[in-house]
Specification:
By secondary structure, the protein is of the alpha/beta class. Helices cover 33% and strands 12% of the residues. It contains 18 helices and 14 strands. The strands form four sheets. An eight-stranded parallel β-sheet has the order 1-10-9-8-7-4-3-2. A two-stranded antiparallel ribbon has the order 5-6. β3, α6 and β4 form a beta-alpha-beta unit. It binds flavin mononucleotide.
Length: 488
């Protein structure tokens, strides 16, 4: 079996878009699109007039034309929406989904993977966050319709996903149990999805993609391999220097003098033990340079997963002005990344790049009026009547409290849904004319990305990263042999 040495990590929302994943996979490594919030992102791309006609091209290839037509007719704005007009918003996810929300998930995930696969024959992966549970089933189905080669999932323990992949490959309906805070024993929290309810004609044959679990410890790695509902094909082991969400430290949370979580010995991964698990693994978090890649391979890893270095490539979805400002910081060596224990409503630490005028500024954060209109991070909870309600610690405080949330949970929370849309150029405009502020996440190694800039250049491409990362490992097998021969 052939595995990539480099996985370009999934970066939501829309940072690892189809164009970045396409570029990386074309080079023979694994390009991964982010599957997070693709339904809303799709709506915004159509509202902006489908620049370049890419969404239309994807829709034309979609196997259920009536569904594609419904979505196009509802959301496409021919000349793009006026700048001062707000984006239309698709309804929020809930356990009993509206049909049009399910259709948007299927279609948008299909299109992203379809476009990432265009023009080459190499595999493409899709990344989901286990915590964002409600869109899982139709999103995975849409990605599989487009022939996705890998599904990668972290930010939680995705035990049930391998079985979902098996069910879809066998053309079976399947279910997925939502975690519902305070649910009574035996309460039905399952979400169901039957492909036959959506197919226009006979069900297409689908391949079962490989499943890679993204975990942060040896214990979780073992749990995934022992208890998952189907085959786990490999593991990505992510350390807390990585961009995006990080696993919380084990044991009681302690903060350093800057207010960041302190990680200790118990959080260290034992690589030698990973080698005994019998599946390939990739190391992630601070592996964005040739030396680290080489060391990972020498330790027995199949390769590395890298995010931060790819986030700033010309192909990524990150807004050009944010790329420029952070690249300038990296060149000057002044990039500053804060591991924020509070910002994410998931409760997981979240890496935040300090960018003036962004949501990382205390003033900007204080000036934003709380609103919850995208709702991906809403936590399902059991209501006193035995139903399922939804709340987010970043929503207006009074609403959160009325839903049984605790005041202390609201402190420091930020609306990642709206911020991450702003990061990629689709900021919502509010009634008072203000734009939702961006909040950029990158890894602790932000400053090292300056290495990819050629002299005199202010941008770099995915190919520059791939070439540079592999520059010390291309002949690894040969080197190893020489070393062995020398010591023999
Ligand atoms: C901008 C950005 C967004 C990210 N979003 C996600 C995500 O949505 N899901 C995920 O599993 N990992 C996410 N990550 C983590 C990456 O997939 C990858 O594991 C990590 O960046 C590797 O560490 P590095 O940043 O030091 O290269 C994100 C990372 C970055 C930089």
């Amino acid at each position: 079996m052939q595995f990539p040495k480099i996985i370009q990590g999934g970066m939501g929302v829309g940072v690892s878009n189809w164009s970045l994943a396409n570029a990386v996979s074309k080079l023979g490594q694994l390009g991964v699109v982010s599957g997070t919030a693709l339904d809303q992102l799709f709506v915004r791309r159509l509202a902006d007039g489908d620049q370049g006609g890419h969404m239309r091209r994807g829709l034309d290839a979609f196997p259920f034309p009536e569904m594609a037509k419904r979505i196009w007719q509802e959301y496409f704005v021919p000349a793009g929406k006026p700048v001062q007009a707000p984006y239309a918003i698709a309804p929020m996810h809930q356990r009993r989904e509206l049909r049009k929300v399910v259709e948007l998930c299927i279609v948008s995930n299909f299109v992203e993977v379809f476009l990432a696969r265009e023009g080459h024959k190499n595999p493409v992966g899709i990344n989901f966050l286990e915590k964002v549970q409600m869109p899982h089933l139709p999103s995975i189905y849409g990605a599989m319709l487009a022939g996705v080669g890998y599904v990668l999932m972290g930010a939680g323990i995705p035990l049930h996903i391998p079985g979902v992949l098996d069910a879809f490959a066998a053309q079976h309906p399947t279910e997925y149990k939502l975690s519902v805070t305070g649910a009574a024993q035996g309460q039905d929290t399952a979400m169901t999805f039957d492909p036959a309810d959506y197919a226009e004609g006979p069900l297409p044959m689908l391949h079962r993609p490989r499943f890679l679990a993204i975990v942060s410890s040896n214990t979780l790695a073992t749990t995934m391999l022992r208890r998952a509902s189907g085959r786990v094909d490999g593991l990505v082991i992510e350390t807390p220097t990585a961009g995006g969400h990080n696993a919380p430290p084990r044991g009681k949370l302690q903060l350093n003098e800057n207010g960041e979580p302190v990680y200790g010995d118990r959080d260290r991964v034992n690589v030698a033990e990973l080698r005994t698990l019998g599946v390939p693994f990739w190391l992630a978090g601070g592996y964005g340079n040739a030396q680290q890649v080489r060391e990972a391979l020498e330790q027995g890893a199949a390769g590395v997963q890298v995010g931060t270095a790819f986030a700033f490539t010309e192909e990524s979805g990150l807004r050009a002005d944010l790329k420029m400002s952070l690249l300038a910081q990296a060149v000057a060596g002044t990039g500053d990344v804060f591991t924020d224990p509070l910002a994410s409503p998931t409760g997981f630490p979240f890496k935040v790049a300090q960018v003036q005028g962004s949501y990382s500024d205390a003033d900007v954060a204080a000036a934003r009026t709380r609103v919850c209109d995208l709702g991906y991070l809403r936590e399902p909870y059991a209501t006193p009547e035995g139903n399922i309600g939804y709340r987010c610690a970043a929503e207006p405080v009074a609403n959160f409290l009325a839903k049984g949330g605790k005041i202390e949970e609201t402190v420091g929370r930020k609306c990642l849904c709206n911020a991450l849309m702003a990061n990629i150029g689709h900021a919502q405009i509010r009634k008072d004319g203000s734009l939702e502020p961006p909040l950029v996440t990158v890894g602790d190694d932000l400053n090292t990305v300056a290495q990819f800039l050629a002299p005199g250049s202010t941008t770099y491409a995915a190919a520059d990263v791939v070439e540079s990362l592999l520059s010390m490992s291309a002949n690894l097998a040969v080197d190893e042999q020489q070393e062995l021969a020398a010591t023999a």
